[in-house]
C-alpha cells in the first residue's frame, strides 16, 4: 500500500472536495481518500499494482486543480 500526499492550492469549498473525491475514489486500487479543506491537503491510500501516483495526480488536475507535491 502506498500513500500520496499532495497540496491542492486552489481547493476552496466543499464542492472542490467532492470533485476531487469523486475523481479518484472509484478508481481500482484506491483504498481511501482523505481531504482536509482547511490545510488544502489530500491523502490517497492506493495499491501501486493497480494505479500509479501520476495517474491519480492527472485525474485531479483534469478537474482544474493545481497540485503541489
UniProtKB/TrEMBL annotation:
Molecular functions per Gene Ontology: metal ion binding
Protein's UniProt keywords contain Protein transport: no
Source taxon at top rank: Bacteria
Coiled coil: none
InterPro entries: Heavy-metal-associated_CS, HMA_dom, HMA_dom_sf
Key words of the record: Metal-binding
Domain HMA intervals: 2-68
Name listed for the protein in its UniProt record: Copper chaperone CopZ
Organism: Turicibacter sanguinis
